[in-house]
Amino acid sequence: MAEALVLAELGLYSTHPNPCVGAVLVKDGFVVGRGAHLQAGKPHAERFALAEAGHAARGATAYVTLEPCSHQGRTPPCADALIAAGVARVVIAMRDPNPLVAGRGVERLRAAGVVVEEGCLAAAAETLNPGFLQRMRHGRPWVRLKQAMSLDGRVALANGQSQWLTGEAARADVQQERARASAILVGIGTVLADNPRLAPRLAVAPRRYPVKIVLDTHLRTPPDAALFGTPGEVWICHHQNAPNAAQGALRAAGAELLSCRGTGEGLDWQEVMTMFAQREMNDILVEAGPSIAASLFTAGLVDEWLLYVAPLLLGQDARPVLVTGPYVNLAEVPRWSVINTTQLGDDIKWTLRPQER
Question: Its Gene Ontology molecular function terms (predicted)?
Answer without folding.
Answer: 5-amino-6-(5-phosphoribosylamino)uracil reductase activity; diaminohydroxyphosphoribosylaminopyrimidine deaminase activity; NADP binding; zinc ion binding
